[in-house]
Amino acid sequence: MKIGQLAKSSGLSAHTLRYYERIGLLPFADRDASGQRDYDETILIWIEFLGRLKNTGMPIRTMLAYANMRNDGPATEKARHDLLVAHRAHVQATIENLQANLLVLDTKIAGYAATLQRTQDNDTSAQPGTDKPDYRNPVPTRPTRPGTNRR
Length: 151
Prior knowledge:
By secondary structure, this protein is mainly α. It is built from five helices and two strands; from the N terminus they run H-H-E-E-H-H-H. The protein has a two-stranded antiparallel ribbon with strand order 1-2. The longest helix has 49 residues. The protein starts with a helix and ends in a 26-residue tail after the last helix.
């Protein structure tokens, strides 16, 4: 698969793919007779995994460490396992922090909703015999100066 096709399939730009290859996140691609990169389709699985690591906040230097261990083969499985366990704990802590923040936002939103409902109830009850709240501006408008035409 050529780099343009890989870019389209992976959602990454060709520039990003070349960068990932240059720094070691992607293995060097085979080259065809004309010297163009020729990727195997299985690279898409690795790129998807890298995307998940990135989306969960793993720094590129840690992704590189993982990729280097992966390239070193089965002898690094324990180290890769430990790295992913540590990253999972970081992701879990981030999720818990986000959930706590979401709870604060929900509480604040509920408070505003209750205030808005009370305001609407008061506005509606201030006009007996009508379903519409009174939206008239209680602040008087400024008078115009003589000789000016204000629209």
